[in-house]
Amino acid sequence: MLQAEYALSGDDYLFLGTNTPFSTGGFDGFDLTRAGLDAGYERFWNARWSWGTTLGVGAYSTNRDGGEVSPLTVDVVPELFLRHWNTLGNYNFRQRLGVEYLIPGGTGNESRARTRLRFDLDRLIPVGQVVVRPRLAYEAFAYLRFQRDEDAPKERTIDFTALRAEVGLRLSDHFDFTPWFAYQSTYNNVLQQTDINGNVVVPGGRRNFVTPMLGLDLRYTLFKGKQVFDRRQLPTQH
Protein backbone atom coordinates (compact mmCIF):
# COMPACT_ATOMS: atom_id res chain seq x y z
CA MET A 1 0.00 0.00 0.00
CA LEU A 2 1.29 3.45 -0.97
CA GLN A 3 0.11 6.24 1.35
CA ALA A 4 0.28 10.01 1.55
CA GLU A 5 -0.59 11.56 4.92
CA TYR A 6 -1.25 15.25 5.47
CA ALA A 7 -0.69 16.25 9.11
CA LEU A 8 -3.10 18.91 10.34
CA SER A 9 -2.99 20.68 13.71
CA GLY A 10 -2.32 18.42 16.71
CA ASP A 11 -2.64 14.75 15.83
CA ASP A 12 -5.38 15.24 13.22
CA TYR A 13 -4.66 14.13 9.67
CA LEU A 14 -5.93 13.38 6.19
CA PHE A 15 -4.66 10.40 4.24
CA LEU A 16 -4.87 8.85 0.80
CA GLY A 17 -3.68 5.37 -0.07
CA THR A 18 -3.69 2.91 -2.93
CA ASN A 19 -3.23 -0.84 -2.73
CA THR A 20 -2.88 -3.72 -5.18
CA PRO A 21 -3.29 -7.10 -3.48
CA PHE A 22 -2.36 -10.22 -5.46
CA SER A 23 -2.51 -13.94 -4.79
CA THR A 24 -0.26 -16.88 -5.62
CA GLY A 25 -0.78 -20.60 -5.98
CA GLY A 26 -3.57 -20.49 -8.58
CA PHE A 27 -3.62 -22.21 -11.94
CA ASP A 28 -2.43 -19.00 -13.60
CA GLY A 29 0.40 -18.28 -11.11
CA PHE A 30 0.28 -14.68 -9.89
CA ASP A 31 -3.20 -13.20 -9.88
CA LEU A 32 -3.38 -9.39 -9.92
CA THR A 33 -6.94 -8.42 -10.73
CA ARG A 34 -7.81 -5.88 -8.04
CA ALA A 35 -6.83 -2.32 -7.10
CA GLY A 36 -8.06 -0.17 -4.25
CA LEU A 37 -8.10 3.48 -3.25
CA ASP A 38 -8.64 4.61 0.37
CA ALA A 39 -9.13 8.10 1.77
CA GLY A 40 -9.71 9.16 5.36
CA TYR A 41 -9.84 11.88 7.98
CA GLU A 42 -9.34 11.59 11.74
CA ARG A 43 -9.86 14.21 14.43
CA PHE A 44 -8.74 13.91 18.06
CA TRP A 45 -11.01 15.32 20.77
CA ASN A 46 -8.25 14.90 23.36
CA ALA A 47 -5.20 12.72 24.01
CA ARG A 48 -7.31 9.56 24.33
CA TRP A 49 -10.31 9.81 22.01
CA SER A 50 -10.73 10.44 18.31
CA TRP A 51 -13.26 9.87 15.57
CA GLY A 52 -12.91 9.65 11.84
CA THR A 53 -14.29 8.60 8.50
CA THR A 54 -12.89 6.64 5.59
CA LEU A 55 -13.97 5.90 2.04
CA GLY A 56 -12.70 2.81 0.24
CA VAL A 57 -13.08 2.12 -3.48
CA GLY A 58 -12.15 -1.29 -4.88
CA ALA A 59 -12.00 -2.11 -8.58
CA TYR A 60 -11.66 -5.73 -9.66
CA SER A 61 -12.52 -8.35 -12.25
CA THR A 62 -13.25 -12.07 -11.84
CA ASN A 63 -12.51 -15.14 -13.90
CA ARG A 64 -15.59 -16.81 -15.33
CA ASP A 65 -15.98 -20.40 -16.52
CA GLY A 66 -13.90 -20.98 -19.61
CA GLY A 67 -11.25 -18.46 -18.59
CA GLU A 68 -13.21 -15.38 -19.61
CA VAL A 69 -12.55 -12.27 -17.51
CA SER A 70 -15.59 -10.30 -16.35
CA PRO A 71 -15.97 -6.54 -16.90
CA LEU A 72 -14.49 -4.23 -14.29
CA THR A 73 -16.54 -4.01 -11.08
CA VAL A 74 -16.27 -1.17 -8.54
CA ASP A 75 -17.29 -1.49 -4.87
CA VAL A 76 -17.62 1.53 -2.54
CA VAL A 77 -17.29 1.30 1.26
CA PRO A 78 -17.90 4.40 3.45
CA GLU A 79 -17.03 4.05 7.16
CA LEU A 80 -17.34 5.90 10.46
CA PHE A 81 -15.08 4.92 13.36
CA LEU A 82 -14.18 5.71 16.96
CA ARG A 83 -10.71 5.20 18.47
CA HIS A 84 -9.46 5.07 22.05
CA TRP A 85 -5.76 5.52 22.85
CA ASN A 86 -4.25 4.31 26.12
CA THR A 87 -0.88 3.16 27.45
CA LEU A 88 0.24 -0.03 29.16
CA GLY A 89 3.61 0.78 30.67
CA ASN A 90 5.84 1.79 27.73
CA TYR A 91 3.38 0.44 25.15
CA ASN A 92 0.59 2.18 23.27
CA PHE A 93 -2.70 0.26 23.48
CA ARG A 94 -5.50 1.28 21.12
CA GLN A 95 -9.01 0.11 20.37
CA ARG A 96 -10.78 0.99 17.14
CA LEU A 97 -14.48 0.38 16.44
CA GLY A 98 -15.79 1.04 12.94
CA VAL A 99 -19.12 0.66 11.16
CA GLU A 100 -19.13 0.54 7.37
CA TYR A 101 -21.53 -0.10 4.52
CA LEU A 102 -20.59 -2.10 1.44
CA ILE A 103 -22.13 -0.78 -1.79
CA PRO A 104 -21.26 -3.42 -4.42
CA GLY A 105 -20.96 -2.54 -8.06
CA GLY A 106 -21.58 -6.02 -9.46
CA THR A 107 -25.01 -7.32 -10.36
CA GLY A 108 -26.58 -9.78 -7.96
CA ASN A 109 -24.53 -8.61 -4.95
CA GLU A 110 -26.23 -7.23 -1.85
CA SER A 111 -25.35 -4.07 0.03
CA ARG A 112 -24.42 -4.98 3.61
CA ALA A 113 -23.56 -3.20 6.83
CA ARG A 114 -20.41 -4.41 8.55
CA THR A 115 -18.52 -3.68 11.75
CA ARG A 116 -14.88 -4.03 12.75
CA LEU A 117 -13.23 -4.08 16.16
CA ARG A 118 -9.46 -3.85 16.37
CA PHE A 119 -7.01 -4.01 19.27
CA ASP A 120 -3.37 -3.10 18.71
CA LEU A 121 -0.27 -2.81 20.86
CA ASP A 122 2.97 -1.11 19.83
CA ARG A 123 6.04 0.70 21.09
CA LEU A 124 8.35 3.34 19.60
CA ILE A 125 12.05 2.48 19.94
CA PRO A 126 14.65 5.05 18.78
CA VAL A 127 17.66 3.40 17.17
CA GLY A 128 20.09 6.12 16.09
CA GLN A 129 18.30 8.29 13.53
CA VAL A 130 15.61 5.65 12.93
CA VAL A 131 12.49 4.98 15.01
CA VAL A 132 11.42 1.32 15.10
CA ARG A 133 7.78 0.47 15.84
CA PRO A 134 7.10 -3.24 16.58
CA ARG A 135 3.35 -3.81 16.62
CA LEU A 136 0.76 -6.54 17.06
CA ALA A 137 -2.88 -6.09 16.01
CA TYR A 138 -5.97 -8.28 16.15
CA GLU A 139 -9.17 -7.42 14.30
CA ALA A 140 -12.60 -9.07 14.28
CA PHE A 141 -15.03 -8.41 11.43
CA ALA A 142 -18.75 -9.20 11.30
CA TYR A 143 -21.72 -8.49 9.06
CA LEU A 144 -24.54 -6.70 10.85
CA ARG A 145 -27.65 -8.89 10.61
CA PHE A 146 -30.68 -6.86 11.60
CA GLN A 147 -33.14 -9.45 10.32
CA ARG A 148 -32.72 -12.91 8.77
CA ASP A 149 -35.30 -14.69 6.65
CA GLU A 150 -36.46 -17.98 8.17
CA ASP A 151 -35.18 -19.97 5.19
CA ALA A 152 -31.83 -18.14 5.01
CA PRO A 153 -28.77 -20.24 5.94
CA LYS A 154 -27.39 -19.58 9.41
CA GLU A 155 -24.17 -17.60 9.49
CA ARG A 156 -21.37 -17.46 12.02
CA THR A 157 -21.34 -14.64 14.60
CA ILE A 158 -17.85 -13.50 13.54
CA ASP A 159 -17.15 -13.70 9.81
CA PHE A 160 -13.45 -12.80 9.65
CA THR A 161 -10.50 -12.18 11.93
CA ALA A 162 -6.97 -10.99 11.21
CA LEU A 163 -3.87 -11.28 13.39
CA ARG A 164 -1.11 -8.97 12.13
CA ALA A 165 2.50 -8.55 13.23
CA GLU A 166 4.71 -5.80 11.81
CA VAL A 167 7.84 -3.74 12.29
CA GLY A 168 7.47 -0.11 11.22
CA LEU A 169 10.62 1.84 10.36
CA ARG A 170 10.45 5.63 10.61
CA LEU A 171 13.44 6.82 8.54
CA SER A 172 12.71 10.54 8.78
CA ASP A 173 9.95 13.00 9.65
CA HIS A 174 8.50 12.41 6.20
CA PHE A 175 9.10 8.81 5.21
CA ASP A 176 8.46 5.43 6.82
CA PHE A 177 7.72 1.90 5.66
CA THR A 178 6.19 -1.12 7.36
CA PRO A 179 6.62 -4.75 6.33
CA TRP A 180 3.94 -6.96 7.89
CA PHE A 181 2.70 -10.53 8.14
CA ALA A 182 -0.85 -11.60 8.95
CA TYR A 183 -3.11 -14.60 9.33
CA GLN A 184 -6.58 -13.88 7.98
CA SER A 185 -9.28 -16.34 9.04
CA THR A 186 -12.71 -16.82 7.45
CA TYR A 187 -15.46 -18.53 9.46
CA ASN A 188 -18.14 -20.33 7.43
CA ASN A 189 -20.92 -22.88 7.71
CA VAL A 190 -20.46 -25.19 4.71
CA LEU A 191 -22.79 -27.73 3.13
CA GLN A 192 -22.02 -31.42 3.20
CA GLN A 193 -20.49 -32.77 -0.02
CA THR A 194 -20.88 -36.35 -1.25
CA ASP A 195 -19.57 -38.40 -4.19
CA ILE A 196 -21.72 -40.11 -6.84
CA ASN A 197 -22.32 -43.05 -4.47
CA GLY A 198 -23.62 -40.85 -1.68
CA ASN A 199 -20.51 -41.17 0.48
CA VAL A 200 -19.60 -38.05 2.45
CA VAL A 201 -16.45 -36.51 1.02
CA VAL A 202 -16.52 -33.20 2.89
CA PRO A 203 -18.57 -33.07 6.10
CA GLY A 204 -20.85 -30.11 6.58
CA GLY A 205 -20.86 -27.70 9.48
CA ARG A 206 -18.44 -25.12 10.80
CA ARG A 207 -15.27 -24.64 8.77
CA ASN A 208 -12.47 -22.14 9.30
CA PHE A 209 -10.22 -21.12 6.41
CA VAL A 210 -6.87 -19.48 7.20
CA THR A 211 -4.88 -17.46 4.67
CA PRO A 212 -1.33 -16.22 5.39
CA MET A 213 -0.61 -12.75 4.02
CA LEU A 214 2.51 -10.65 3.46
CA GLY A 215 2.38 -6.90 2.94
CA LEU A 216 4.37 -3.70 2.72
CA ASP A 217 3.12 -0.19 3.52
CA LEU A 218 5.04 2.84 2.26
CA ARG A 219 4.04 6.26 3.64
CA TYR A 220 5.07 9.84 2.92
CA THR A 221 4.00 12.54 5.41
CA LEU A 222 3.34 16.19 4.59
CA PHE A 223 2.88 18.85 7.28
CA LYS A 224 0.45 21.75 7.28
CA GLY A 225 2.44 24.95 6.86
CA LYS A 226 5.39 22.87 5.54
CA GLN A 227 7.12 23.04 8.95
CA VAL A 228 7.58 19.77 10.85
CA PHE A 229 5.89 19.77 14.28
CA ASP A 230 5.56 17.25 17.12
CA ARG A 231 2.62 14.86 16.80
CA ARG A 232 1.62 11.30 17.61
CA GLN A 233 1.47 9.45 14.34
CA LEU A 234 -0.57 6.29 14.01
CA PRO A 235 0.80 3.12 12.38
CA THR A 236 0.33 2.68 8.64
CA GLN A 237 -2.70 0.46 9.36
CA HIS A 238 -4.95 3.42 10.13
Commentary on this structure:
The structure is a single chain. The protein has 238 residues and is mostly beta strands. The chain has strands at residues 2-7, 13-19, 23-26, 29-31, 34-44, 49-60, 73-88, 91-102, 112-122, 125-127, 130-143, 160-170, 175-190, 193-194, 200-202, 205-223. The strands form three sheets. The chain has an eleven-stranded mixed barrel. β14 and β15 form a beta hairpin. It is globular. It starts with a strand and ends in a 15-residue tail after the last strand.
Summarize the structure.
With 238 residues, this protein is mainly beta. It has no helices and 16 strands.
What secondary-structure arrangement, pairings included, does this model have?
Elements: E1 2-7, E2 13-19, E3 23-26, E4 29-31, E5 34-44, E6 49-60, E7 73-88, E8 91-102, E9 112-122, E10 125-127, E11 130-143, E12 160-170, E13 175-190, E14 193-194, E15 200-202, E16 205-223
Parallel strand pairs: 1-16
Antiparallel strand pairs: 1-2, 2-5, 3-4, 5-6, 6-7, 7-8, 8-9, 9-11, 10-11, 11-12, 12-13, 13-16, 14-15
Strand order of the largest sheet: 1-2-5-6-7-8-9-11-12-13-16
Main sheet specs: 11 strands, mixed, barrel
General form: globular
Order of helices and strands: EEEEEEEEEEEEEEEE
Strand content: over 45%
Given as residue ranges, the uncertain stretches (5+ residues, pLDDT < 50) are none
User: Mean pLDDT score, rounded?
Assistant: 87
Helix content: under 10%
Structural class of the helices, strands and pairings?
mainly beta
Overall strand count: 16
**Number of helical segments with 4 or more residues:** 0
Cα(first) to Cα(last) distance is 12 Å
Rg over alpha carbons:
21 Å
